[in-house]
Amino acid sequence: MKGIVLFDGECNFCDKSVQFIIKRDPKGYYNFASIQSTLGQDLLKKYNLDSNMDSFVLIEHNKAYEKSAAALRITKNLRWCWKFLYPLILVPVPFRNWIYGVIAKNRYKWFGKKDQCVIPSPEIRKRFLD
């Protein structure tokens, strides 16, 4: 079963993060959906998450992970050295999520907002769910 990454479709930083994952996920383990999409909203509802989520969400093995837990779990399936970030999961959650929260809170200010999405190649487009 593949993992599904939910992301803010209006956020430049989130878009760059998705592109980062795609480049380092040669096996295509992750599929993607924007939080704003119908599927994204349905998955948030299914896992009792806030519909105005400002976090990456990873759905994997019928569980939803958010914030730093999602980001670190994603690294487990990426190419070579990125896997070595996963042990940071041992850092206490409040500290990890505080750092994550600072970035999430300032992402539009620091990285801007998108007016439109980049059109991916047909091969990559298949990994984006409606």
Automatic annotation (TrEMBL):
Q: Which residues form a coiled coil?
A: none
Q: Spell out the InterPro entries in the cross-references.
A: DCC1-like, DCC_oxidoreductase
Q: What is this protein called?
A: Thiol-disulfide oxidoreductase
- Pfam family example for this protein? DCC1-like
Q: Which organism is it from?
A: Peribacillus loiseleuriae
GO molecular function per UniProt: protein-disulfide reductase activity
